[in-house]
Amino acid sequence: GGRRSGVQLYCELKRRTRIQTVDGTEEPFSSLGWARLVPPLPLQESQYQSCAVVMSAGAVLNSSLGWEIDSHDAVLRFNAAPIKGFERDVGTKTTIRIINSQIVARPKHQFNSSSLYRDGTLLVWDPAPYSSDLTQWFEKPDFDLFSPYVQQRRLRPEQPFYILHPEFIWSLWDLIQDNTEDQIQPNPPSSGFTGQRVYEFIPSVRRTDLCHYYERYHDDACTLGAYHPLLYEKLLIQSGSTRATKTS
Ligand code: NCC
After folding, report:
1. Residue 95 burial by CB count (10 A; 0-12/13-18/19+): exposed, middle or buried?
2. Whose CA is nearest to atom 11 of ligand 1?
3. Which helix H or strand E contains 76, and what residues bound it?
4. For residue 121, what are the CA distances in angstroms to 28, 60, 143, 245?
5. φ and ψ at 65, to 5 degrees?
6. DSSP per residue, 81-117
7. According to the model, what pLDDT value does residue 140 have?
8. Which of 41, 62, 153, 208 is paired with 226 by a 20 to 30 Å CA distance?
9. Which of helix, strand or coil describes residue 72?
């Protein structure tokens, strides 16, 4: 694929990647009555003026970015990333939490009882195979997100909770692949590849091999990727932002 300028990249991102969630109108979900199970209002992407996307990266630790993060209309967080005890670095508000299917499926995360998942809108994704249809995915997800999803919708119908459509995930992957000469790994982009002001996605001067700001675990793969094409996600975002700054 050819290289694009920052502005071109931004336009392409907007055009090619309109957020899409499972809305219950397609099989197998329609037969299961999911049109009434999913939240009545679709997830709006352009509802907020400004958005802070807080990476779970170790580089967030001691950043003192909390106040700046909270000054945005919407704050996005990922997976099990906590706030308590880290307010100065990560802020206090959560508008949307993007979680992978391990969070809802694996008992260790205590999805049903943990207060982490009570605030704001929840958006869960699962790495469906690139070309599988929704029925195949439903029968064999990477981690079973479907039963806990149904359970949670019934238990807390007032909390907006959506499942990302696999087509959306793979449209992001296509975008990354189209913007590099390399063959990237055939796995979905990481949860963090989304949003506007992305804190510590491109590691700053605080770059560290500390995996998460909330755990004492060191591994460079957290920042540069192994399963996820994280390095390419970051190179794409970085080329977009530096070129955008130069041209504006
Ligand atoms: O680690 P994870 O990601 O929860 O991080 C959320 C997002 O922050 C960005 N990140 C994280 C660490 C770091 N040093 N630099 C970063 O830029 C990434 O964009 C990342 O997406 C995931 O993407 O869902 C992931 O989830 C974890 C894990 O499943 C959850 O934390 C739950 O425990 C995955 N790790 C494992 O499965 C072992 C990780 O690969 C991807």
Report:
1. middle
2. 57
3. strand 74-78
4. 24, 23, 21, 32
5. -90, 0
6. ---TT-HHHH-S--SEEEEEHHHHH-GGG-TTT-GGG
7. 96
8. 62
9. coil
Tell me how far CA of residue 20 lies from CA of 116, 124, 185, in angstroms.
Answer: 24, 12, 23
The complex's ipTM works out to: 0.96
Q: Give the whole-angstrom CA distance, residue 83 versus residue 19.
A: 26
- The protein residue with its alpha carbon nearest to ligand 1, atom 20, reads 192
Could you list the pLDDT tens digit for every one of the 248 residues in the chain? Answer: 455 676 777 677 777 777 889 999 999 999 999 999 999 999 876 778 888 889 999 999 999 999 999 999 899 999 999 999 999 999 999 999 999 999 999 999 999 999 999 999 999 999 988 887 999 999 999 999 999 999 999 999 999 999 999 998 898 899 889 988 999 999 998 887 754 445 666 666 677 899 999 999 999 999 989 999 988 888 888 776 554 333 32
Report the separation in Å between the CA atom of 123 and the middle of ligand 1, taken as the mean of its atom positions: 15
Q: Which residue has the tokens 């506007």?
A: 196
Out of 110, 191, 211, 215, give the residue to mutate to test ligand 1, the one with the largest number of ligand atoms within 8 Å of its CB: 191
Reference 107, options 148, 61, 158; nearest CA is 148
Cβ neighbour number for residue 140 with a 10 Å cutoff: 11
Q: Measured between alpha carbons, how far is residue 35 from residues 38, 83, 98, 150, 158 in Å?
A: 6, 33, 21, 12, 16
Per the CB < 8 A criterion, the answer to whether 164 and 124 are in contact is yes
> Nearest to residue 247, comparing CAs of 13, 14, 8?
8
